[in-house]
C-alpha cells in the first residue's frame, strides 16, 4: 500500500502553465513562507506575470500604496506542506547538480511538490467519504459509485492534479469535513439528544460535549470562509446543529446555552473569517470595493457550453435528485443544504463590472479561463448526504407492501443499475473534458460555443494527441525521484500513520459504530480553537516585516506601480473585447 500510494501521487507529468489568476496564489506561498512579507511585486516579477487586475493601490483612495493581491489565502496554510517539502526537493537537486538555480528550482519543483501533496489529499478525500458512507450502512456498490462520481464527475480531480495552487481542492476538503461532521452531529441530536449535549452516559459537560463538537464545526466553517469568502454562509450549519441539539431543553436553559455556545462558536468562526478582510483593510483602506450593479445569468451559468454547470458536470443532477428526496421526506437539514446550494449558485451566476483599482468584479459569469464551473466546486460537498437519501428512496421502493416483494426488489435493482449507468455516462462528459484540458489547456479555457465544446469532448480519443502531450509534459526521472523522496514518502507515511490511528483501513472489515463517540478529544477542540489564533499571529509577523521593508525602501512601491499599473489598466480596457467574443459565440445576455 505504501509503495503504491507513493507511486500514485508522484509528479510524473508537469502541469501546464496556468493563467495569470494563479500568480496571486503562488505569490502567497512564496511571500508567506519564504520572503515572509505581504509585498508581492518581487513574486510577480519573478513569475513573469501578474494576476489579472493586480496593481499598486492608490493612496488617494485610502489604500496603503502596496501591491494588491485580493485572492484569499486561507488555502495557503493547507498547501504549505507540499510547497515547503517541494522547496526541499529543489534544494536537493541543486546540491546534486541535477538542476540549476532559476525558475525551475524556485517555482516549478515546489509546485510539483504541491501537486504530489494535492493528489494525496484527493485520495484521502475519497477514502474519508467512503468510510463515512459505509458507517451509515450504505452498500459497497452504491458507496463506490458515489465516490467515483464525486471525484471524477466534478472538476475536483482536475483541480487537484492540474491546478493545486488554486483554492478549490482545499475548499472542497474543508467543506466535506464540515458537512460530514455536521450531519454526524445532527444525527446524534436526533437519535440521542442528551448525548449530543454531552450530558449523558458519563460524558463530561462543556468542551468535551456539545460545545466541543460545535467549536470544531465553527472552525471548519470559518476556515472555509478564509479559503473562499463566498462560503461564509456555511456558518449556518453550526447554528442549525446547536438549535437541534438543544431543542428538548426548557426555554430559559436552552436560550442560555444557545447564547453562550453561539458567542463561543462565532468567535472561533470570526477568527478565521477575518483573516482576509484584515489584509484587505491594510492594502486597500477597507475590505474591498464591491460597489456596482450586479446582473445575474442563471440559465447561462447552469447550461451554457462555456463552463455551464450541468453541461460540464451532468452527474450533479443525481445529487440534486437526492437532495430533493431529502427535502420531500423532511430529512433533518435537507432544506438548509438546498438553501445554501441555491445561494452559492445565485452568487456565482452574478456579474459585476470591472473598473480600474477595484478589488473584485467580474464582467462575465464564466469563472474565467478555468475548468468547468470552478466557482461552484467548493460548495458541491453539500450534496454528500444526498446519496443517503437516494438509498432511502430505493429502500422505500423495495419495501412497498402494496405490490409483490419480488417485483419491488427487481425495481430497486433496476434503479440502482440506472443510477450507476446514467451517472457513469454523465461522468464520461467531465472526464473527456478533463482529458482535453490535460492534452491542451487552451482547448477548454477558450470561449466554448457548441462546436468548440464538441471538439473538446472528442479530443481525448485521439491517441496521437496523448502521445504529443506526454512528450511535452513528462518530468525527468531525477526530479520525479527527488520529489518522491522528499515530498511523497514522508507525507504518505504521515497520512498512513494518521489513518491507522483513527482506525481507517483496518483489516477486520467491520463497520465502525453508526453514531460518533460521545467524547470529543480535547486535542481536536484545542486545535480547532488555536489554529486561527496562530494564523493571525503569523499574519502579524508578515505585516510587521512588510512595514519594516517599506520603511527601509520607500521607493519600492513607486517603482512597482510604474510597471504594474499600466498593465492593470490595459487588462481592464481589454475586457469589452472579451465580452464581445462571448456574445458572438454564445448570444446576447452574457
Which radius of gyration do the C-alpha atoms yield? 25 Å
Number of helices: 26
Sheet with most strands: strand arrangement? 1-2
- Give the low-confidence spans: 199-208, 506-510
Shape summary: globular
Strand tally is 2
How large a portion of the residues is in β-strands, by DSSP E?
under 5%
Major pleated sheet: 2 strands, antiparallel
Structural class determined from secondary elements: mainly alpha
Looking at how many chains there are and whether they match, the oligomeric state comes to single chain
Helix content: 55-70%
Alpha-carbon distance between the two ends: 49 Å
Order of helices and strands: HHHHHHHHHHHHHEHHHHEHHHHHHHHH
Q: Mean of the pLDDT scores?
A: 87
Tally the structural domains: 1
Descriptors:
single chain; 590 residues; mainly alpha; two-stranded antiparallel sheet; membrane; Glycosyltransferase RgtA/B/C/D-like domain-containing protein; transmembrane helix
How do the helices and strands line up, and which of them pair or pack?
Elements: H1 2-9, H2 21-35, H3 41-47, H4 74-96, H5 103-135, H6 140-152, H7 156-161, H8 168-191, H9 193-196, H10 210-227, H11 236-245, H12 251-273, H13 275-284, E1 294-296, H14 298-303, H15 309-312, H16 316-328, H17 334-348, E2 350-352, H18 386-398, H19 405-439, H20 441-445, H21 450-458, H22 463-473, H23 477-501, H24 522-552, H25 556-573, H26 575-586
Antiparallel strand pairs: 1-2
Helix pairs in contact: 1-23, 2-4, 4-5, 4-23, 5-6, 5-8, 5-23, 6-19, 8-10, 8-11, 10-11, 10-12, 10-24, 11-12, 16-17, 16-18, 18-19
Amino acid at each position: 500500500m505504501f509503495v503504491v500510494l507513493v507511486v500514485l501521487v508522484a509528479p510524473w507529468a508537469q502541469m501546464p502553465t496556468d493563467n495569470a489568476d494563479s500568480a496571486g496564489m503562488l505569490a502567497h506561498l512564496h511571500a508567506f513562507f519564504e520572503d515572509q512579507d505581504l509585498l508581492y511585486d518581487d513574486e510577480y516579477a519573478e513569475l513573469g506575470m501578474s494576476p489579472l487586475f493586480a496593481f499598486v493601490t492608490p493612496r488617494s483612495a485610502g489604500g496603503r500604496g502596496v501591491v494588491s493581491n485580493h485572492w484569499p489565502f486561507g488555502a495557503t496554510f493547507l498547501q504549505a506542506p507540499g510547497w515547503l517539502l517541494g522547496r526541499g526537493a529543489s534544494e536537493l537537486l541543486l546540491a546534486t547538480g541535477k538542476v540549476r538555480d532559476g525558475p525551475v528550482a524556485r517555482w516549478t519543483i515546489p509546485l510539483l511538490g504541491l501537486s504530489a501533496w494535492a493528489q494525496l489529499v484527493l485520495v484521502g478525500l475519497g477514502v474519508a467519504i467512503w468510510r463515512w458512507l459505509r458507517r451509515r450502512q450504505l452498500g459497497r456498490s452504491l458507496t463506490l459509485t458515489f465516490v467515483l462520481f464525486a471525484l471524477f464527475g466534478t472538476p475536483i480531480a482536475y483541480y487537484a492534479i492540474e491546478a493545486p495552487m488554486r483554492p478549490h481542492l482545499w475548499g472542497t476538503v474543508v467543506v466535506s469535513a464540515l458537512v460530514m461532521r455536521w450531519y454526524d452531529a445532527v444525527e446524534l441530536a436526533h437519535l440521542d439528544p442528551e448525548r449530543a449535549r454531552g450530558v449523558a452516559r458519563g460524558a463530561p459537560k462543556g468542551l468535551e460535549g456539545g460545545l466541543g463538537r460545535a467549536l470544531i464545526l465553527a472552525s471548519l466553517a470559518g476556515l472555509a470562509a478564509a479559503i473562499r469568502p463566498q462560503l461564509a454562509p456555511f456558518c449556518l450549519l453550526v447554528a442549525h446543529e446547536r438549535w437541534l441539539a438543544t431543542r428538548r431543553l426548557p426555554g430559559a436553559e436552552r436560550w442560555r446555552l444557545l447564547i453562550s455556545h453561539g458567542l463561543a462558536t462565532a468567535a472561533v468562526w470570526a477568527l478565521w473569517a477575518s483573516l482576509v478582510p484584515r489584509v484587505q483593510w491594510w492594502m486597500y483602506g477597507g475590505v474591498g470595493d464591491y460597489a456596482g450593479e450586479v446582473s445575474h445569468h442563471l440559465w447561462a451559468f447552469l447550461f451554457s457550453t462555456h463552463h455551464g454547470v450541468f453541461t460540464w458536470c451532468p452527474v450533479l443532477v443525481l445529487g440534486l435528485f437526492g437532495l430533493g428526496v431529502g427535502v420531500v421526506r423532511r430529512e433533518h437539514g435537507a432544506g438548509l443544504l438546498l438553501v445554501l446550494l441555491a445561494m452559492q449558485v445565485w452568487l456565482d451566476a452574478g456579474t459585476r463590472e470591472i473598473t480600474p483599482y477595484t478589488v473584485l468584479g467580474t464582467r462575465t459569469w464564466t469563472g474565467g479561463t478555468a475548468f468547468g464551473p470552478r466557482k461552484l466546486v467548493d460548495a458541491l460537498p453539500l450534496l454528500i448526504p444526498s446519496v443517503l437519501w437516494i438509498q432511502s428512496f430505493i429502500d422505500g421502493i423495495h419495501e412497498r407492501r402494496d405490490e409483490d416483494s419480488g417485483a419491488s426488489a427487481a425495481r430497486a435493482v433496476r434503479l440502482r443499475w440506472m443510477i450507476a449507468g446514467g451517472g457513469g455516462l454523465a461522468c464520461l462528459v467531465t472526464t473527456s473534458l478533463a482529458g482535453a484540458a490535460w492534452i491542451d489547456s487552451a482547448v477548454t479555457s477558450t470561449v466554448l460555443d457548441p462546436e468548440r465544446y464538441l471538439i473538446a469532448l472528442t479530443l481525448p480519443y485521439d491517441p496521437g494527441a496523448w502521445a504529443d502531450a506526454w512528450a511535452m509534459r513528462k518530468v525527468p526521472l531525477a526530479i520525479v525521484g527527488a520529489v518522491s523522496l522528499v515530498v511523497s514518502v514522508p507525507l504518505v507515511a504521515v497520512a498512513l500513520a494518521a489513518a491507522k490511528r483513527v482506525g481507517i483501513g483496518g483489516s477486520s472489515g467491520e463497520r465502525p459504530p453508526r453514531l460518533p463517540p460521545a467524547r470529543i478529544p480535547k486535542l481536536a477542540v484545542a486545535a480547532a480553537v488555536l489554529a486561527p489564533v496562530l494564523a493571525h499571529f503569523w499574519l502579524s509577523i508578515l505585516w510587521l516585516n512588510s512595514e519594516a521593508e517599506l520603511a527601509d525602501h520607500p521607493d519600492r512601491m513607486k517603482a512597482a506601480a510604474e510597471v504594474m499599473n499600466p498593465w492593470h489598466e490595459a487588462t481592464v480596457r481589454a475586457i469589452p473585447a472579451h465580452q464581445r467574443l462571448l456574445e458572438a459565440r454564445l448570444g446576447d445576455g452574457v
